[in-house]
What we know:
The protein is mainly α. It is 67% helix and 0% strand. The chain contains 11 helices and no strands. α4 (61-70) runs antiparallel to α5 (74-84), α9 (156-169) packs parallel to α11 and α10 (175-184) packs antiparallel against α11 (187-205). It is elongated and about 60 Å long.
Amino acid sequence: RLQLYPTILEYQLGRSFPMEDRSKKPALSEEVQELLTEGLEGKCYSHAFDLIAKYSIESFLPEVGQLAVSSKESRVRWDAVQCLSQFRSKEIVPYLVECLNDNNSGVQDEAKQILDRMREYEEQKALWGDLLDGKGMPGANNPGKALIEMLDHADLEVRLAAIKSLGKLAEPNTLPVLVNLMASGSAEEKAAAKAAIDAITVSELQK
């Protein structure tokens, strides 16, 4: 069954997702759900990841995200992060942020690159949206700018207050700064940055 797993799953998914209209999201049959779960829990995880990404099966995004942050095998975590990158959904952000603290540098780097690409995409989208709407260049009077400048203050308490304020401000374009703090700041700054990132993520998901 192990050798036939990819063929069986591809066949079942092909029946569920007609080639002529992959935009439709039909309910997965019980058999397909069991096959995907079996793959994620066993040696066929890479095939399951590939097909979940190929067919954009968002119902399995939480399972993939959990593997990205909690699997004992670094290869599984890396493959899970790769799978998450195929989804254009804000729901993948909390998993990727947590992966920035992974004990494997490859997983860390992959998560950071994906977050950077997402940030760049959102910035470009905002830029051209504002230009097309006649608003000019966005961010000219960014209220987060002063707070970001305070992150270099000599007093730790001032820096922590600035980080907390960035979380309350909830501007997505400040995420790269907070992500960098998670990678290079002190223990207190890392904790404050993670809380701020979580606050911004929640704010974005509620929009």
